[in-house]
Specification:
Radius of gyration: 33 Å
Largest sheet: 5 strands, antiparallel
Strand order of the largest sheet: 1-2-3-4-5
Number of strands: 8
Distance between the termini: 114 Å
Number of domains: 1
Strand content: 25-35%
Number of helices: 2
Amino acid sequence: MRVIYKAKRRRKAQRGFSLLELMVAVSILTTVIGVVTTGIMDIEKKSASDVNKVGLAQESRQFMDQILRDLRQAGYPSLAMFDPASGVTASSSNVAVGLISFSSTAIQFEGDIDGSGVSEVYLQVVPATGSCPCIVQRGTVLKSVGGTPAYYTELDNVMSQNIFTAYNYNGTVWDPASETVDLIKNIGVTLYVQSPQPDFNDKSVTYPTTTMVSAVRINN
């Protein structure tokens, strides 16, 4: 009798999992894997959003630095730096006259921006009117060569078209209706840029933005 009882217990111990137990185990395992996978995907999305924000700020800063470097060279070298007896005039290819035209969406000026000679530099927002996002283009052509420059996109997803502001020597805003461009002594630059990628750190669908404001005094 004891032998039969032991045999039954042995067969019961060797029976293994039932189908119901196996299904419950698989269900629990699937749930755990799903939670872990979702967490990993969320972490990756948040990391990508953070990298995107940093890249947006760096791109905007680099363009701002480039604009300021260019504008500091406006009007250099000026006619006053040459001996009048040399016969050099403002139209000479080695003389920069400074600002040629100015608006809140476009600037044209002459200056030696990279040491290669006087260039005509063009900065413009495209489109100049209408709705944004817009792009900011830059074009240069040597004054000695002339002609229309090739434009290159320097910054995109700009959300405001009026990025340039001009000021007189006394700090007042330059009035294009009554004042000439030679009175402009300072130029302010405002960049409001939006990322094309959404911010996954926010539950609602938002797009990261960055705003940069700076100003530069020019040799005009």
